[in-house]
UniProtKB/TrEMBL annotation:
<comment type="similarity">
    <text>Belongs to the amino acid/polyamine transporter 2 family. Amino acid/auxin permease (AAAP) (TC 2.A.18.1) subfamily.</text>
</comment>
<feature type="transmembrane region" description="Helical">
    <location>
        <begin position="321"/>
        <end position="342"/>
    </location>
</feature>
<keyword id="KW-1003">Cell membrane</keyword>
<feature type="transmembrane region" description="Helical">
    <location>
        <begin position="443"/>
        <end position="469"/>
    </location>
</feature>
<dbReference type="GO" id="GO:0015293">
    <property type="term" value="F:symporter activity"/>
</dbReference>
<dbReference type="GO" id="GO:0012505">
    <property type="term" value="C:endomembrane system"/>
</dbReference>
<dbReference type="GO" id="GO:0005886">
    <property type="term" value="C:plasma membrane"/>
</dbReference>
<keyword id="KW-0769">Symport</keyword>
<dbReference type="GO" id="GO:0009734">
    <property type="term" value="P:auxin-activated signaling pathway"/>
</dbReference>
<feature type="transmembrane region" description="Helical">
    <location>
        <begin position="385"/>
        <end position="405"/>
    </location>
</feature>
<keyword id="KW-0813">Transport</keyword>
<feature type="domain" description="Amino acid transporter transmembrane">
    <location>
        <begin position="37"/>
        <end position="468"/>
    </location>
</feature>
<dbReference type="GO" id="GO:0006865">
    <property type="term" value="P:amino acid transport"/>
</dbReference>
<feature type="transmembrane region" description="Helical">
    <location>
        <begin position="191"/>
        <end position="214"/>
    </location>
</feature>
<keyword id="KW-0812">Transmembrane</keyword>
<keyword id="KW-1133">Transmembrane helix</keyword>
<feature type="transmembrane region" description="Helical">
    <location>
        <begin position="280"/>
        <end position="301"/>
    </location>
</feature>
Length: 481
């Protein structure tokens, strides 16, 4: 017997099993796939490594916009909403019966099973736009970190006398060139080693940022910052900054898109996968919030209202310069891997669609086997080569036109928060549990969704306003930092 297992990008892995193994259910789950082995601890580890990333770097700036009272409160509110809506989403992994119902393997499949029609297309559009935005944001962030390494060494050599101005374009082009090479790795499942390296790097630079913040507070012998946050700006700037901060915090908590894929790694009942995933979500949100509060609050305590947009590249820290270099090198390595993790599903979607649309095209479907000494033959697909290269070039060009880390992060967080974290989970849960319209629970869920929609609109407006303000003083391809 042959058992086919779908990867996250719709590629198939094939398993050959004996008749004895087929009879013995200990080898297989109820859907015929090889038995899942995940636990609440492995699931929470997946979530934590996926969530703790570049979003942590802007949290000190976000708290500076909101102040000592509103900043932590907003962070706790986002943590609660993310946890609550994730619990609702966990219930939708299986259709109907939480133990024996049909499984859904991806976020899109859950939306298709419960909502169907136009909402599936809308969900796909938002997800893929989000993935494109992440690619742009990561290109900008990596260039800023590469510049930070060069500048910290320049400051060290000149004793702080040289302003060390430079242009970010060459660093974005370098990042894009690396991504063109990595993008030719055909399948998502061949990137497992890159994901592990990226996860280690994200913890490395986040921990260094936290350590430097604590060190700065000890050095200053006081907690900087004010109750209301930044107050030496115009009312309009204060408003836009506060709204953009909401988007930055939302971005730091976004993991709904991958929750179902993670839940699909959990071993079968008892207990039910939803029960295990709820526990994993609680663990991961508590750990992540604790870590975010430390990074954001100590960053703000260290620099107060002058907290930089990116904690490790805003040059609040100058020494030890070698530790800053390690942290920024870790950011670059993490973002190289993270870029691929986020782009591979989009690559796969376009390639699968094109293959179905043009089944007789050699350009789209033919693989040319190229021998590589010491390795298996590399299957070169011309369409994959051209399409992925063009995609990386386009995202790099857009990054060069909009090199604003905070604005991009805020916009991404704002756009993705309500639909992916709140709206779809709430609507699917209502259908899954057959909650009567206008019942108390239905009204409460709709009020939550409506409130989060207002926050998303406000954060989007704030981020767009921030982009417009930055573009007024920015000259594409010419501005020197």
């Amino acid at each position: 017997m042959v058992v086919e297992k779908n990867g996250s990008n719709n590629h198939h892995q094939t398993f050959y099993v004996s008749i004895d193994q087929q009879i013995d259910s200990k080898f297989f789950d109820d859907d015929g796939r090889v038995k899942r082995t995940g636990t609440s601890w492995t699931a929470s580890a997946h979530v934590i490594t996926a969530v703790i990333g570049s979003g942590v770097l802007s949290l000190a700036w976000a708290i500076a916009q909101l102040g000592w009272i509103a900043g932590p409160i907003v962070m706790f509110l986002f943590a609660w909403v993310t946890y609550y809506t994730s619990v609702l989403l966990c219930e939708c992994y299986r259709n109907g019966d939480p133990v024996n119902g049909k499984r859904n393997y991806t976020y899109m499949e859950v939306v298709h099973s419960n909502l169907g029609g136009f909402q599936v297309q809308l969900c796909g559009l938002i997800q893929y736009l989000n993935l494109v935005g992440v690619a742009i944001g990561y290109t900008v962030a990596s260039a800023i970190s590469m510049m930070a390494i060069v500048r910290s060494n320049c400051f060290h050599r000149s004793g702080g006398k040289d302003p060390c101005h430079m242009n970010s374009n060459i660093y974005m082009i370098a990042f894009g060139a690396v991504q063109i090479i990595f993008s030719q790795i055909p399948d998502f499942d061949q990137l497992w080693w890159l994901s592990i390296v990226a996860a280690v790097m994200s913890f490395t630079y986040s921990t260094i940022g936290l350590g430097l913040g604590i060190g700065k507070v000890i050095e200053n012998k006081k907690f900087a910052g004010t109750i209301t946050g930044i107050n030496d700006v115009t009312k309009a700037q204060k408003t836009w900054g506060s709204l953009q901060a909401l988007g930055d915090i939302a971005f730091a908590y976004s993991f709904s898109m991958i929750l179902i894929e993670i839940q699909d790694t959990i071993k079968a009942p008892p207990p039910s996968e939803s029960k295990t995933m709820k526990k994993a979500t609680l663990i991961s949100v508590i750990v992540t919030t604790f870590f975010y509060m430390l990074c954001g609050c100590f960053g703000y305590a260290a620099f107060g209202n002058s907290s930089p947009g990116n904690l490790l590249t805003g040059f609040g820290f100058y020494n030890p310069f070698w530790l800053l270099d390690i942290a920024n090198a870790a950011i670059v390595i993490h973002l190289i891997g993270a870029y691929q993790v986020y782009c591979q599903p989009l690559f796969a979607f376009v390639e699968n669609y094109t293959a179905k649309r043009f089944p007789d095209s050699d350009f789209v479907n033919k693989n040319v086997k190229i021998p590589i000494p010491g390795l298996d033959r590399y299957k070169l697909n011309l369409f994959r080569l051209v399409w992925r290269t063009v995609y990386v070039i386009l995202t790099t060009l857009i990054s060069m036109l909009l090199p604003f880390f905070n604005d991009i992060v805020g916009l991404l967080g704002a756009i993705g928060f309500w639909p992916l974290t709140v709206y779809f989970p709430v609507e699917m849960y209502i259908i899954q549990k057959k909650i009567p319209k206008w019942s108390t629970k239905w009204i409460c869920l709709q009020l939550l969704s409506g409130a989060c929609l207002i926050i998303t609109i406000a954060a989007t407006i704030g981020s767009i306003a921030g982009l417009i303000l930055d573009l007024k003083v920015f000259k594409p391809f010419k501005t020197i930092y």
